[in-house]
Amino acid sequence: MTNTIFLFSLPGGGELIVILFVVLLLFGGKKIPELMRGLGKGIREFNNARNAVESEIKEGMREVDRKKIEEKKEADTAE
Description:
With about 80 residues, the chain is mostly helical. It has helices spanning about 1-5, 15-79.
């Protein structure tokens, strides 16, 4: 079972150094700040979209709860 889990583990210290070295070789020192800005914008947009979807779901749940309460009140007053 541990043989299949290694595909999903996070990289360690040595692996991170190799990854950073490869990124430095591929993009060069001048392009890295631009790359990080783009990455930051992407993460920010993702979080904004996630928050928007989350708030829509919560609002929909509140609306369903309100409808249930109104229906219960109407049923109680009809009796």
